[in-house]
Design brief:
The chain is mainly alpha-helical and 243 residues long. Helices cover 69% and strands 0% of the residues. Helix 2 packs antiparallel against helix 6 (129-153), helix 2 (21-42) runs parallel beside helix 8 and helix 4 packs antiparallel against helix 5. The longest helix has 25 residues, at 70-94.
Length: 243
């Protein structure tokens, strides 16, 4: 088993500064698109990952715009904040080993998404009342935890839920703007992956496969966790966080 981390590392290409983290975080960006498409289309114009959108939706609701729910936006914002606090605490408990941090973050996040899936399967979708609130809360906590863990991993341009800075960097540092296009491929991959997750999730919902986006998201998280299991004991340079 001693060579297992090396074999997995060689397969994923862990020689770079961030090892296998970039492709794994792109996988989580796909998860973001899936769960936000589910929440927006089925839970009533609310995001569980994109908190910027919820702040704007809350303003719309307060202004009297139809189709937006102040309570749903507040619940998502609150749940996301709780998840981020828990993700921060996880970082303190796990320490600076990036593979272990992401692994345990995935275990916790997958458990919350599976719980949300169980709630969704017991209810008629789109839900209402307490069922809707439970789904918003479970998914928002999961995504808040993901965002906190990813922030601690500190891989440039791969925040998985916030892409405004990535798009700004892509444009501002481009050759058209007089720059040298640093990390252009990664910066382009992130929004394209989010788009792909949103497109897939929306297509499934529109065609009546209401709970499938959560199934796919949970499956992706399980796969990412499985990849990280043999890397939890790795001592490769990429596993060490900032001092």
């Amino acid at each position: 088993m001693a060579g297992s981390p090396r074999r997995v590392g060689a397969l994923l290409g862990t020689r770079g500064r961030h090892g296998p983290l970039p492709p794994l975080l792109l996988g989580l960006t796909l998860v973001t698109g899936l769960v936000d498409s589910f929440s927006y289309l089925l839970l009533g114009h609310v995001f569980v990952a994109n908190m910027t959108g919820n702040v704007v939706f809350l303003a719309f609701s307060v202004a009297g715009a139809k189709g937006f729910s102040a309570s749903a936006s507040l619940l998502a914002l609150g749940g996301f904040t709780v998840g981020a606090v828990l993700g921060g605490r996880l970082g303190e408990l796990v320490g600076r080993h990036r593979a272990r941090l992401l692994l345990w973050g995935q275990v916790a996040q997958a458990a919350l998404v599976v719980a949300a899936l169980a709630v969704a399967e017991m209810a008629r979708l789109p839900p209402s009342g307490g069922t809707r609130a439970a789904l918003v809360l479970l998914l928002a906590v999961a995504m808040g935890g993901q965002n906190a863990v990813v922030t601690r991993l500190a891989v440039p341009d791969l925040r998985t839920t916030v892409l405004t800075g990535t798009l700004t960097g892509l444009a501002a540092d481009s050759r058209l703007a007089g720059g040298r296009d640093p990390r252009a491929l990664r910066r382009l991959a992130a929004p394209l992956t989010l788009f792909g997750g949103g497109l897939l999730g929306a297509a499934l919902v529109v065609h009546g496969e209401h709970d499938v986006p959560l199934r796919v998201a949970a499956g992706l998280m399980v796969v990412i966790a499985a990849v990280l299991v043999p890397l939890r004991t790795s001592s490769a340079p990429w596993t060490r966080g900032k001092e």
